[in-house]
Design goal:
This protein is mostly beta strands. It has one domain: Beta Barrel (Lipocalin), CATH 2.40.128.20. The radius of gyration is 15 Å and the shape is globular. The relative contact order is 0.21.
Length: 146
């Protein structure tokens, strides 16, 4: 099954909650969120979402595609700064799992994982510090917009 078919249950407009933490010992901070998910250029899924960091509105975009193997690009006004991140991955255990990396200030690159679970309309993001287990940084839980 390709990415478009796998993510078809998520097509449409959504609202929900974004939860964010920086470090694994931090408490999650919650904000309201929205998402618009659609098919683009017949072979890709776009996930455009909004959330806030305190009073500061934020937004992001994922563009995902592929058949047996998945690929994606991601930008977010808070997380990625002026660059985008690229990802590869696939569908495992009912979720789309993507893996990418970004440069650290010093030492080896750090990893970033994005998981999209269409069965319960949840997107999670995980930071991967070299030598440590990934830890969840973001949870975007969605419900259909009314």
């Amino acid at each position: 099954m390709g990415v478009v078919d796998h993510l078809t249950p998520l097509l449409g407009r959504w609202q929900g909650t974004n939860r964010l933490r920086l470090m694994p010992t931090d408490e999650f901070r919650s904000s309201t969120a929205t998402a618009t998910i659609g098919v683009t250029a017949a072979r890709f899924v776009s996930i455009a979402y909004t959330w806030s960091d305190g009073d500061a509105p934020q937004d992001g975009l994922l563009l995902l595609g592929g058949d047996d193997d998945a690929a994606g690009v991601w930008v977010d006004s808070w997380h990625t700064g002026p660059t985008w991140m690229t990802f590869t991955g696939g569908i495992e255990d009912g979720e789309l799992r993507l893996r990418g990396s970004y440069p650290a200030e010093s030492g080896p690159d750090w990893g970033w994982h994005i998981h999209v679970r269409p069965g319960d309309a949840v997107l999670t993001m995980h930071n991967v510090v070299p030598g440590h287990e990934p830890y969840q940084v973001v949870e975007l839980a969605l419900q259909p917009m009314r």
